[in-house]
Amino acid sequence: MSGDGVTRRGILGGGVTAASLALAASPAAALLQARGAARAAGQRMPNGLELPATPPRRKRPDSVGFAIVGLGNYALNQMMPRFAEAERAHVAAIVSGNPDKLQRVGDAYGVPQDARYSYETFANIASDDRIDAVYIVLPSGLHADWTIRAFAARKHVLCEKPMALSGAECERMIAASGRANRKLMIAYRSHFEPYNLQAMELMAQGAVGQLRLIRSEQSYRMGPTSPSQNWRANRALAGGGPLEDYGIYGLQAALYLAREMPESISATAFRPGADPRFGEIFAHVSSQLRFPSGAIAQLATSYDSSGINFVDVRGTTGALIMDPATSYSGQKMRLEGRDRREFTPGDPSVQFARQLDHFADAIRGGTRIRTPGEMGLRDLRLFEAIYASAAAGRTVKLNPDGTMRS
Ligand SMILES: NC(=O)c1ccc[n+]([C@@H]2O[C@H](COP(=O)([O-])OP(=O)(O)OC[C@H]3O[C@@H](n4cnc5c(N)ncnc54)[C@H](OP(=O)(O)O)[C@@H]3O)[C@@H](O)[C@H]2O)c1
Measured from the CB, is residue 161 less than 6 Å from ligand 1? Predict the structure, then answer.
């Protein structure tokens, strides 16, 4: 991409998303940007939905009651069923723009009629004492707005990744959390998954010697679609596309395995012409992060190449290979080199319930949140640097907090 004249001030100014200036290089994209913010609106029931035959019960009197905001695929097919495995978290309320979902999902999960909210009645959760926390599972471009609304109702917030679409939005979310004196956690589930936890431990122990290179790729091929059919192809809801949605796992892994912040980034982003899937978002983003130790991370992510989710970490004495690295289940991990070993540290599917219990413990017991809003902010700043580098066609230098150096 050519991006002459894209400045740091332009990229950070006025609440634009991390990707918007890089994308606004095309007049069509600039027009779409002018359409303004996206709105929450009910969608049809996801395919293949299985609802519980009997409503799950809360396990403890001090269990944290969650309001689930956005009954989409991930909420209904992954997270809501996992509440039954959590010790200290339960579904107390649901929020949806689709009345049929409110009825069917509410009945299946035993959610009382008066704990079923629409986006229009959401503010009423403020006086609902059954709700301690709000879980935001909306399209990414709606995370900031609805997180801030939840804080205005004085609830704690668990927000899905990516935290938002710009560093400025993240800062507003953190400020709202502070004003409300309520907690904010980003749902970075790999921090609760046994393989990734063991990988972090191995790196802390120097299992590959001195770190030299991390390579990661998170890609899949998006089916035929367009920005009006699929929020993941819509810039106002998805930012630049694959990086915020899937490549975020590679960035996260690079940071928790390298255990340092990059000092510079160089990146490229590609959008094929005349493909309705990529009218507003990028198809591929690849970036190179340079760490103060001299180690490099090469991250690639795509919505238009065949499926992969791997992380490969190379050091002076060995390599740690994770493939798949950050899936819901089926992780594989091996060490090569001086110490050859396969690892089977536990069932990856515990990550969902552990994440819920971790947040419940922070709310009830005041324990430290492993994946706080500040981590989400850090990642959005790095995305901004990636897009800035891609737009300008040059390396971007970073401050230790991930902001770009002028
Ligand atoms: N941590 C993970 O592993 C993981 C995996 C997948 C997704 N996610 C995250 O979870 C969030 C939701 O993703 P998803 O895959 O569940 O998406 P999805 O299936 O499309 O569901 C999104 C839901 O949000 C609600 N919504 C409100 N306004 C909307 C609008 N303007 N356009 C589309 N939907 C709107 C709808 O719920 P109602 O019909 O009930 O209103 C919709 O069903 C995203 O932030 C994503 O990054 C995380």
Answer: yes
112 contacts: CB under 8 Å, gap ≥ 6: 106, 130
Residue pLDDT, tens place only, 208-239: 999 999 999 999 999 999 999 999 999 999 99
pLDDT digits (tens, 9 = 90+) for 88-98: 999 999 999 99
Whether 246 is a known active-site residue: answer: no
- Per the listing, tokens 């080199």 go with 337
Is the peptide bond between 162 and the residue preceding it cis, with omega within 30 degrees of 0? Answer: yes
Active site residue 155: no
Burial of 254 (0-12, 13-18, 19+ CB in 10 A): buried
H, E, C per residue of the chain: CCCCCCCHHHHHHHHCCCCHHHHCCCHHHHHHHHCCCCCCCCCCCCCCCCCCCCCCCCCCCCCEEEEEECCCHHHHHHHHHHHHHCCCEEEEEEECCCHHHHHHHHHHHCCCHHHEECCCCHHHHHHCCCCCEEEECCCHHHHHHHHHHHHHCCCEEEECCCCCCCHHHHHHHHHHHHHHCCCEEECCHHHHCHHHHHHHHHHHCCCCCCEEEEEEEEEEECCCCCCCCCHHHCHHHHCCCHHHHHHHHHHHHHHHHHCCCCCEEEEEEECCCCCHHHCCCCCEEEEEEECCCCCEEEEEEECEEEEEEEEEEEECCEEEEECCCCCCCCCCEEEEECCCEEECCCCHHHHHHHHHHHHHHHHHHCCCCCCEHHHHHHHHHHHHHHHHHHHHCCCEEECCCCCECC
Cβ–ligand 1 distance for 145 under 6 Å, the answer: no
Strand-pair partners of 268 = 286
Nearest CA to ligand 1 atom 10: 137
pTM equals 0.94
